[in-house]
Design a protein that fits this description.
Structural class: mainly alpha
Shape: globular
Order of helices and strands: HHHEHHHHHHHHHHHE
Radius of gyration: 21 Å
Strand order of the largest sheet: 1-2
Oligomer: single chain
Number of domains: 1
Helix content: over 70%
Length: 329
């Protein structure tokens, strides 16, 4: 990363933090504190437990994906790898650290392109379902934001385009990536990246083939746990938001946090939630109190992931590549 790009990134992150501080200066922090002091402990604990269920289900999905690449990962090992990558995703812009789990595969003999594609496919299924849920939220729960039908159509078109590109027209993706790569400096680097992308896209059908039903089922189960956490936690806080508003807020907030302009969506996520809560007739304090549930989830998953990272670090140990290789559990 160049010096200029590094400072641009730092500037955007600082703007996100500044926006978050500005939002906090415009709300009654004592009221938000009372919401958390009087929180219902049993529902809150159940919500937090769902975060571990979410991680476990996504780890099983990633384990299913990499099994299509001839690599078998133990269940406990897969959970630790996935949790560690979630930790790195929390502390990197746009959750780019999620792709770190590819390093485990690369360090154990899988080629760079195939290792990276496992993480791309893992995120792709999340994004497709997120866009579908966003579309359903905007269409079937009217009155929350302006131009809902148009926004819903955009979300649905994006999901359909992603599915079509990966399953039917990977050649278009390859050409787009090649055009992007050709503008990068360093001929040797461009060549390596081009080979990795081509190899990853070529291996996509065999990676998913015969496993699509299980992958989709695990994705649906994981996102059910994800949304249930926020619904339960909102009820425990007593913010008074209906389920429809919570679903729309969570979808919009996650999309906002994927834009790599702040730290885990800090500031931008809170602004999105405030705007949606306002459209639903709910106050800023309720919106900010609910937005803190995102921070809590990041803390819980972050600490868990950090512990998993410490016990399963990204070491340089390499295992010779072999079809059907097994990573220890």
């Amino acid at each position: 990363m160049s010096f200029r790009s590094r400072w641009i990134r730092i500037l955007f992150q600082a703007l996100g933090v500044a926006l978050f501080i500005l939002i906090l200066s415009r709300v009654d922090l004592r009221e938000i504190g009372r919401s958390y002091r009087t929180i219902s402990p049993a529902p809150a604990a159940a919500g937090i437990a769902l975060l571990f269920v979410l991680t476990f289900l996504k780890a099983l999905r990633w384990r299913t994906i990499v099994s299509g690449q001839g690599v078998e990962v133990g269940v406990w090992r897969a959970f630790r790898i996935y949790a560690a990558s979630l930790f790195l995703g929390v502390v990197t812009p746009g959750h780019l650290g999620d792709f770190a789990k590819s390093l485990y595969l690369s360090n154990r003999g899988l080629s760079a392109g195939r290792a990276l594609m496992s993480s791309v496919a893992d995120r792709l299924f999340d994004l497709i379902l997120l866009f579908v849920i966003a579309f359903a939220s905007l269409v079937f729960f009217p009155g929350l934001v302006r131009n809902q039908i148009l926004l819903g159509a955009i979300f649905l078109a994006a999901a359909a385009a992603a599915v079509a590109a990966f399953f039917f027209r990977r050649d278009i993706l390859a050409r787009l990536v090649k055009r992007f790569v050709s503008a990068m400096p360093g001929e040797r680097f461009r060549g390596s990246l081009d080979r990795a992308v081509t190899e990853g896209l070529d291996g996509f059908p065999s990676m998913i083939g015969g496993r699509l039903g299980r992958i989709v089922a695990l994705t649906l189960a994981a996102w059910t746990a994800h949304y249930a956490y926020f619904v339960i936690f909102a009820a425990a806080l007593g913010v008074g938001a209906p389920v429809s508003v919570i679903v729309v807020c969570v979808s919009a907030a996650i999309v906002a946090s994927l834009v790599p302009v702040s730290i885990s969506g800090l500031g931008t996520r809170d602004l999105v939630i405030i705007l949606i809560f306002a459209r639903a007739g709910l106050g800023r304090e309720a919106a900010v109190a609910f937005s803190f549930s995102f921070i809590l989830s990041y803390l819980v998953l972050g600490v868990t992931g950090l512990l998993c990272w410490i016990t399963a670090p990204f070491d340089g140990e390499r295992v010779p590549p072999a079809a059907g290789a097994v990573i220890e559990s």
